[in-house]
Each structure stands twice: as C-alpha cells, then as structure tokens.
Design goal:
alpha+beta; single chain; magnesium; Alpha-Beta Plaits; tRNA guanylyltransferase activity; Thg1_C_dom; binds magnesium ion; six-stranded antiparallel beta sheet; binds 2'-deoxyguanosine-5'-triphosphate
Length: 298
C-alpha cells in the first residue's frame, strides 16, 4: 500500500492544526430542527424530553472527552469549551469537529427512545459542528454569556408567543404582530396580566439553558455504608448504619456502574469526577469565580 504509484495523492491532504494555547469552543447545532421538531411533535415552546436528550448526548461527550471542561445547551444546540492546552487529536480541526459531532449525533439517536418512547424517529437527525478559537478568558466568558442571553431572549419571546396562541386564541400571524416592537418588560406584562404567568417562576431549564460541569466525587470513607447497600440487605432500621448524604450515594452508584461497564474494557481507575447538569447563571462573574479551574490551568 505504502509506495504505490497512487500514493502521491496523499500529499493533497493538508494539515489543519488549530493555534496552540488558545481556548476552543465547539458548537454543535441541529440541522433543520425547525422541520425535525415539527415532524416529531415537539411541545411548544419547549419540549423537556428533547432538551433532556440533548443534555444526555452532551454528557456522553464530556464523559468520553475529559478535555471538555464546560458545556452549555439550549434549543437544538450545545457549546463545549475545551481546556486551553488540550492536545486532543493533535489539535487537528476536522478530526475534532467531525469525531465529536458524530459522537453527539449517534448518542442523540442511541438514547432517543428513552426520551420519546412513543415517537419513533421518522428520519435520521444530523448536527453541524464548528470550532471557534478564543484567545482570552474575557471572550470565553462573553461567549457563554452570549449564548445564555440568547436563551433568555428566545424563551421570553416564544413563551409569550405561544401563550397568545394556545391560551389567548390568537393566530400565529396575530401573535407576531402583537409582539412586534415590544420590549422584555412588555412581554413580562402580557404574560402576567393576560395569562397569570410569572416568567421568573418558569422552569430554570427553559430560562437559563443547561450548564454541564464536572464535580468531584467524594471519596468513600472506610466502614461507611450507602443507602443502596442498606436497602439491598434489608438493614434500613439498624441504628449503627450511618446514612450518607445524597451526593455520596450517587457517587457510589456511579462508581459501581463504572466498574461493571469498564472492568472488561481494561480501564484501571474509576473516574474522580462526574458530569452534572445545572440551570444556573453564567453571565455574572460568580459562576467563573467559583470555578476558577475552568479558565486557569494549574
Ligand atoms: P439550521 O440550524 O440552520 O439547520 O436550522 P434550524 O431549523 O435548526 O434552526 P435553528 O437552529 O436556528 O433553530 C432551532 C429550531 O429547532 C427552531 O425552529 C425551533 C426548534 N426547536 C428546538 N427546541 C425546540 C423545542 O423544545 N420545542 C419545539 N417545538 N421546537 C424546538
Ligand atoms: Mg441556525
Ligand atoms: Mg439548528
Ligand atoms: Mg439552533
Ligand atoms: Mg481510520
């Protein structure tokens, strides 16, 4: 194979390395999800199942790629921040974009029936992917603030729009014209005075999107027994068994799952962190101050 007379065509494949020492953000977005959401009867304005499925695919990606330190998702898109010094696939752009976008897509399809048990896929969905480089932490923070502000603007509009249609009996054309030229405060007012909806009390998932970060798994201490172990053995009422907090119980069960799945794959150590889904603010500095390690590598 190596030195056939045809091998020169290989020289036409050019390298596409990404600049070293800068942050990479990979954004994946559903292709024509306007159509896909209609064909699969997504609830309007927000379909919790669809959003949770997106979170699940993003979680799979973060579990497979430890160099992803943060992810943010809304609607049919997810953004992934890779650590500044990542050497993933030697920073080859097409390798990273295509492999990660492909895993996200296959995970979305793989878990579809878990979230849509009564809605078979009528055609295979696809996602596009792109990488944007950001040299400084300011731009990284502003990038995520931009996506979360977008979530808020779209959700406020869509929530008011569909309230006018579904509860207010307007046609979609009428609802569009009702909202033309309105400011955020006007939409809050329409929601509250006409439909009794307090926007700020709606599910944070819809208002803030999904924020995925890694949290440390607490190490289990010698001699402590988890709730699962207690229940399995029917020891619930024994006074000498110490109830651990919820986090440790989850951590323990994740480790057991990990062991079951990975012992045969030959992976030696269980993970020290787990990926959690939050619906918190990423625009204010607090988020970044509490998680300094996302941007500053030790
Ligand atoms: P693209 O990305 O240029 O290929 O085209 P689209 O159609 O994917 O456009 P995009 O990404 O700007 O907008 C996302 C579409 O997905 C938008 O039409 C609404 C739909 N969508 C996303 N999440 C939901 C949901 O939870 N419920 C419903 N009903 N639709 C959703
Ligand atoms: Mg688009
Ligand atoms: Mg899309
Ligand atoms: Mg989109
Ligand atoms: Mg190959």
């Amino acid at each position: 194979m190596a030195n056939s007379k045809y091998a020169y065509v290989r020289d036409f494949e050019l390298p596409d390395p990404l600049l070293p020492g800068v942050f990479m953000v990979l954004r994946i977005d559903g292709h024509s999800f306007h159509r896909f959401s209609e064909k699969h009867n997504f609830a309007k304005p927000n379909d919790v199942r669809a959003l949770q499925l997106m979170d699940h695919a993003a979680q799979d990606l973060m579990e497979e790629y430890p160099d992803i330190v943060l992810a943010f998702g809304e609607s049919d898109e997810f953004s992934f921040l890779l650590r500044k010094s990542t050497s993933l696939y030697n920073r080859r752009q097409s390798k990273i974009v295509s492999t990660l976008t492909s895993l996200f897509t296959s995970s979305y399809v793989f878990h579809w029936s878990l979230y849509f048990p009564d809605t078979p896929l009528v055609y295979p969905p696809s996602f596009d992917g792109r990488i944007v480089l950001y040299p400084r932490t300011k731009e990284v923070k502003d990038y995520f603030a931009w996506r979360q502000a977008d979530t808020h603007i779209n959700n406020l509009y869509n929530t008011t729009f569909w309230a006018l249609v579904q509860q207010g009996g307007q046609t979609t054309t009428e609802a569009h014209s009702t909202l033309r030229g309105t400011f955020a405060k006007d939409k809050h007012e329409i929601l509250f005075s006409r439909f009794g909806i307090n926007y700020n009390q709606l599910d944070a998932r819809f208002r803030k999107g999904s924020v995925l970060v890694r949290e440390d798994l607490e190490e289990e201490k010698e001699g402590e027994v988890t709730k699962e172990a207690m229940t399995d053995e029917g020891h619930d009422e024994q006074p000498n068994i110490k109830l651990l907090n919820h986090g440790v119980i989850i951590a323990r069960s994740l480790k057991l799952d990990w062991k079951k799945e990975n012992t045969r794959k030959g992976k030696a150590r269980p993970p020290k962190t787990k990926v959690v889904v939050l619906h918190c603010d990423v625009i204010k500095d607090e988020f970044w101050e509490e998680r300094n390690g996302l941007l500053v590598e030790s």
